[in-house]
Amino acid sequence: MTSQTIKKENPINVPLRWMRVEEAAQYLRVSTDFLNKARQTKNPNIPFSRIGSRIVYDRVALDEFLKSLEQV
């Protein structure tokens, strides 16, 4: 008998709490260009942190940001 790998419906791996721009874009399902422009114009004001010259996104803050956009 061979064991089969069960594929999950969501192909995106849930990243660690802190994500680079590319990982955050994949998590939000947007382009890196969108995130870069949003960061520069603050529209929408997607939360991020700067560590030296590195930009990182907090998964928890992104989830809260998305929740704030929900329309009832």
Short structural description:
This protein has 72 residues and is α+β, with helices and mostly antiparallel strands. The protein is built from three helices and three strands. It is globular and about 40 Å long.
Task: Give the helices and strands, then pairings.
Layout (H helix, E strand, L loop, with lengths): L17 E2 L1 H8 L3 H10 L7 E3 L2 E5 H11 L3
Antiparallel strand pairs: 1-3, 2-3
Helix pairs in contact: 1-2
Descriptive notes:
With 72 residues, the chain is of the alpha+beta class. Helices cover 40% and strands 14% of the residues. It is built from three helices and three strands. The chain has helices spanning 21-28, 32-41, 59-69, and strands spanning 18-19, 49-51, 54-58. A three-stranded antiparallel beta sheet has the order 1-3-2. A hairpin with a 2-residue loop joins strand 2 (49-51) and strand 3. Helix 1 (21-28) crosses helix 2. The longest helix is centred in the last third of the chain and has 11 residues, at 59-69. It is globular and about 40 Å long. The termini are far apart.
